[in-house]
Structures are given as C-alpha cells and as structure tokens.
Amino acid sequence: MMPYLLLLLGLIFTWLEFYLPGGAFATFGALAILGALVSYFSQSESLIGSVIFFFVACTALIVVIRLAISRIRKSAAANTFFLSKDQEGYKAADFASGMIGKRGITMTEFGPSGYVLIDGKRYPAICRGPYLDKGREVEVIAGESGHFIVKPC
Asked: 114 near 106, Cβ under 8 Å?
C-alpha cells in the first residue's frame, strides 16, 4: 500500500510544481516517486510485477506532466508563459561597416573603452591597445555589436 501512496504523493507534488514553481515540489515529487519505486521493488517478489510498476509510474508521470502543460496552455496565464506570436521589429545592434578606416578624436579617456567623435557624431568605442588620453586621434579598425574598435594613429 505504501508504494502506491508514495507514487500518488509524488504525482501530486509534480502537478503542483507546474503551478507553484520553485523546485521544492519537483524535488519532493521526485523523492516520493523514487521512494515508491524502491519500496515496491523491495516488497515485490516478482520481477515482472516490479517492471510493470516501473512502467506504470513512468506513464503516470508523463500523463501528469502533459495534463499540467495542456491546462496551463488553455488558461488565461498562458500568455505570460508562452509567446503567442513571433517578435518583429527587433534588430541587434549593428555598426556601419563604411566607418572602417575613418579617423576621429577620443572624447573620453580610454581604459579600454570610451567615446570617440567621428564626423561630428559621438560613438561608443573600444581600444585594442594602450590606454588613450582624451583628445587623441584614433582610427576605426572594426566594429562589433554597436561599438567601434579603434587604434591610435
């Protein structure tokens, strides 16, 4: 009788984990199911009965998980868990490749990052080299994720 109660308790804890996430219910559920399996295996004299109990426990666990997910998807809270449509309009930061080779003046001290003035516009930049003082002339050698990589002239 004890293995069946532990299995039921484990399935209930697993169900609760989907609605009150945090890991505690999942841990208790896993321990209860493991305890049910160990308890049944130690009491059972039949290998076939133990294997059947194992597969019943696994099947019940899969059913509980699928039911919990389907209920969440149909609930009003589903919009907070799952994206209903693709995001549009977002573009990762890009740098203008036409700026490579241009020269500018550092607006801040670089150690190793700061701002550089190129063609009257301020851009974030990183220096791959020595510490640079404010007002130093630099050249754009590359760019990555929204900032330039510069070197002293």
From this structure: yes
Tens digits of per-residue pLDDT, 127-143?
Answer: 877 788 999 999 999 88
The token pair that represents 69 in the structure block: 């997910």
Which DSSP string do the residues of 66-112 spell out, in sequence order?
A: HHHHHHHHHSTTHHHHS-SS---S-------GGGTT-EEEESS-BSS
> Cβ distance 152 to 104 under 8 Å?
no
Of 93, 150, 76, 89, which is closest to residue 117 (Cα–Cα)? 150
141 phi, psi to nearest 5 deg: -110, -20
**C-alpha torsion 67→71→74→76, nearest 10:** -160
pTM of the model: 0.52
